[in-house]
Design goal:
Elements (H helix, E strand, L loop, with lengths): L7 H18 L6 H9 L5 E5 L5 E10 L2 E9 L8 H11 L11
Antiparallel strand pairs: 1-2, 2-3
Helix pairs in contact: 1-2
Length: about 110
């Protein structure tokens, strides 16, 4: 499902939960403003990822340019990681790059 500005609190929490540890390991201390800049980057290409219960479990940013699929970002909530969701999203995108434009459930 396409993201909306109302999804910002979820997207900020998701980004912090999935990225802060890695960024800090690189010696960076991102502020909320830094995270929000990354959230808003290509915001129009972002889709929420839902599970079979319609719970939001993550976010993916991707777009197609001609014959090229670009996956800009893929984040899965830590609670849902290691369940094959990211792989499922990538496989679905490779099968049909426009498959996420309306809604995506893994």
């Amino acid at each position: 499902m396409p993201v909306k500005s109302e999804d910002e609190p979820f997207l900020l929490a998701l980004r912090k939960a999935t990225m802060t540890e890695h960024l800090e390991a690189m010696g960076k201390s991102p502020s909320d403003d830094d995270h929000m800049m990354r959230i808003w980057y290509c915001f129009e290409h972002a889709e929420l990822i839902l599970n079979e219960n319609s719970d939001v479990v993550g976010m993916v940013k991707s777009f197609v340019d001609g014959n090229t699929l670009e996956i800009i970002q893929l984040q899965i909530s830590p609670h849902y990681q290691n369940q094959g969701i990211g792989r499922s999203v990538i496989e679905k995108l490779l099968e049909d790059p426009k498959s996420l434009r309306c809604s995506f459930q893994y």
